[in-house]
Design goal:
The chain is α/β, with parallel strands linked by helices. The protein has three domains: 7-173, Beta-Lactamase (2-Layer Sandwich); 199-363, Rossmann fold; 378-495, Helicase, Ruva Protein, domain 3 (Orthogonal Bundle). Helix content is 47%, strand content 15%. It has helices at 7-20, 27-41, 69-72, 82-90, 108-113, 148-188, 199-211, 228-237, 256-264, 281-284, 300-312, 338-344, 349-355, 371-387, 396-404, 410-424, 432-435, 452-470, 475-482, 486-495, and strands spanning 44-52, 59-65, 76-77, 94-96, 120-127, 130-140, 218-221, 246-250, 289-293, 314-316, 323-325, 329-334, 358-361, 393-394, 429-430. The strands form four sheets. It has a six-stranded antiparallel sheet with strand order 3-2-1-6-5-4, with helices on both faces. Strands 8-9-12-7-13 form a five-stranded parallel sheet. A two-stranded antiparallel sheet has the order 10-11. α14 crosses α16 (410-424). The radius of gyration is 32 Å and the shape is elongated. The protein starts with 6 loop residues before the first helix and ends in an 8-residue tail after the last helix. Residues 179-188 and 439-445 have low confidence and may be disordered.
Length: 503
């Protein structure tokens, strides 16, 4: 027991305990405060908080205080190495007042940073008899010796630090679980998870926060695969309409006759297969938001009907003269140049101006590289859960490759690449070879020794194959993305010898 209770030490303990038991969320700041207090009250010149890595058993300097603290954090200790390593391995505290006489002392760090070490006080941080790290005080000021009283106080601080670490890990796991459940709920409702790290995308999301509060139409522009649908979802989810339906329609997926019925509904007998009355997507979206994807492919006849919905909030079902009233917000998206379509007379200018009230341009993935690692990590976790595989992440080489690759298929291509890599990878981390992109692509060597004409033929084959894969071998969608006729695409597939896939 202590010879006497020091009021300063006692009040410090109470202060730290209060923080530990509060909702204090910054674990690093809390641990730093614990270490600073321990260093001050034991009169140490320097100190460190060393954490044990459960996978390899190594000790890493999480926090280091003192004149050379920043330099110390560059080092690590192997299991059992140094006095801290011995304490972690045996779960016992140590007072070493003359390190030169102790064979356990690891002088390499002290020499490398140019900080002479004379004495060390080290205690384990234990969680249910399991050592998670070590608190270490270096050199008692005034060349004094550390005492048993110092050791007992440091052991109390070590208990506090261990509790803080355990709480932080529980909190991290809880946040991950909550995040996963929240994502799952959103997915079950048909929504995607929004991952955004780049300043450009964060700026777009801030814009959406303001835009969503209105009922004005929104036009989302961007290349195929950039995630325009996710931004449309955010417009709805941030709006007062979020509790109402969010209805999606791909204007390019259905022929004109079916698309009109899909959008506006029909009455019994309106056409051969109309055996009963059917509400369209606009009626289903009443009170909420309707997302019209690929709006640039909407036929001119339906453009006129859509314009009326925008202006008057009314329409008629196919085969009926009865007017239907709806309260719907319209969010549209396209990867086509609408301005050019207007000039060609393929898209109504009055509809364009009504849709383009609040335009949002989503940049391609190659222009927001900060998002690539975050998206890749998200897709990795997603596909690891689906395949029940345990992969630790990506190698530095894989990350470097992903950052250097142009991603012509944008986020959709990245998702496909990660899914493929998860399937291919055996264990550990995903490497560059597993991604099958860029310089790691097996077809790269095919260009060597070829004439320009031969190389162009090879490129065409790979480019078209990639486009077909991106659109799940739907030739209609692929042709539209490539801006060529479907018949021409079919001819190229035959001429280039591209293996036929079922659409």
């Amino acid at each position: 027991m202590f010879a006497r209770i020091d009021p300063d030490k006692f009040s410090t303990l109470i202060e730290i305990n209060t923080l530990i038991n509060s909702n204090y969320g910054d674990a690093t700041s809390l641990l730093t405060q614990i270490l600073e207090s321990a260093t001050r009250l034991t009169e140490g010149e320097a100190s460190s908080l060393v954490l044990k890595n459960e996978e390899d058993g190594k000790l890493y300097f999480e926090i280091a205080l003192g004149p050379k603290g920043r330099d110390v954090k560059k080092f690590s200790l192997n299991p059992g190495e140094g006095i801290a390593g011995w304490v972690a391995q045996h779960g016992q505290s140590l007072i070493v007042n003359d390190v030169e006489t102790d064979s356990r002392f690891y002088e390499s760090i002290s020499k490398s940073i140019g900080f002479p070490t004379y004495s060390i006080l080290a205690v384990p941080m234990l969680v249910r008899d399991r050592c998670v790290g070590v608190l270490e005080i270096i050199n008692k000021r005034g060349m004094k010796y550390f005492t048993q009283d110092d050791l007992q106080w440091l052991e109390i601080f070590a208990v506090q630090a261990a509790i803080a670490i355990e709480n932080a890990r529980y909190l991290e796991r809880a946040r991950e679980e909550i995040g996963y459940l929240r994502d799952q709920i959103g997915t079950d409702r048909g929504y995607h998870v929004m991952v955004a790290e780049s300043p450009d995308i964060r700026e777009k999301l801030e814009l959406i926060e303001r835009v969503a509060k209105t009922d004005s139409s929104v036009l989302i522009l961007g290349e195929s695969g950039v995630g325009k649908e996710l931004f449309a979802e955010q417009v709805h989810l941030k709006s007062p309409r979020r509790a109402k339906p969010f209805v999606r329609v791909n204007c390019a997926a259905l022929p004109e006759g079916l698309l009109e019925s899909e959008l506006f509904g029909h009455v019994k007998g309106a056409f051969t297969d109309a055996v009963q009355n059917r509400r369209g997507r606009f009626e289903l979206a009443d009170g909420g938001t309707i997302f019209l994807d690929e709006i640039g492919d909407l036929p001119l006849k339906l453009q006129a009907k859509l314009l009326r919905v925008l202006q008057q909030k009314t329409f008629e079902r196919v085969g009926s003269s009865d007017t239907v009233n709806v309260d719907v917000r319209i969010v549209a998206a396209t990867n086509r140049e609408i301005d050019a379509l207007v000039k060609k007379g393929e898209f109504r200018s009055d509809l364009y101006y009504r849709l383009n009230v609040l335009p949002i341009y989503v940049p391609p993935l190659r222009q927001r590289k900060e998002d690539i690692p975050a998206l890749a990590e998200f897709f990795l976790k997603k596909f690891c859960r689906e395949t029940k595989k345990q992969l630790s992440g990506f190698t530095d080489g894989a990350i470097e490759l992903m950052l250097s690759y142009a991603w012509p298929g944008n986020v959709r291509e990245l998702e496909n690449a990660v899914e493929r890599a998860v399937v291919i990878a055996k264990e550990g981390a995903i490497g560059a070879r597993d991604l099958l992109i860029g310089s790691g692509s097996p077809e790269r060597d095919e260009y060597r020794g070829k004439s320009l004409k031969e190389a162009l033929t090879i490129f065409k084959k790979h480019f078209i194959t990639s486009a077909l894969d991106e659109h799940r071998w739907n030739q209609t969608e692929t042709a539209r993305m490539l801006d060529i006729q479907r018949t021409y695409l079919s001819r190229l597939i035959k001429e280039l010898g591209i293996a036929a896939h079922k659409e």
